[in-house]
């Protein structure tokens, strides 16, 4: 769906994106469920764009308080010029979440689906594969992380790493008093190997030539889904107050 001339290309071709969540004081003090807002940064902290949930006044605010992390929402990804480059839609779900990725013309790119499992954190990632007369979803990656994990590796069906989402903190005091979560999305082999070497771990060689633009868009949406499912103050998944 996405090609090298698409407006989202400049954002998605970065090997590493930092995704920073912002919470308002009312959320911190009273547990008020606010609309989702994230800043997308380069590893050096330079702004690359932002993601903002569309709010619809009082009715939308009441729905956020009633349904918390079960609620559906639509959010828009903007570049630094303020132009919309991607859109994500999350339908209401009691158990397994699902986040769809679209371009501004509402063309479906792919989706990430949560898979419930005892003591595991699992996701399946898909991109749309247009075929003659029909469209099908093809799975390109899977996440199978331990319970309470902060490290989410996107792996191929053979187990080779494709990308990773890691929840990194800017500092203990800052995290406690503002709860601004930072997620590092690494989408190429060099960035992943550098991070893994720092952590003293070993991973298999990366699979294939790297992620396509469509797959990168789904990986970006996966970072948002992980935050909402497991690290929201109201997620109930053991990470909301960390």
TrEMBL record:
GO terms for cellular component: plasma membrane. It holds the Pfam family Scramblase. Signal peptide: none annotated. Belongs to the phospholipid scramblase family. It comes from the Eukaryota. PANTHER family: PHOSPHOLIPID SCRAMBLASE, PHOSPHOLIPID SCRAMBLASE-RELATED. GO terms for molecular function: phospholipid scramblase activity. This is Phospholipid scramblase.
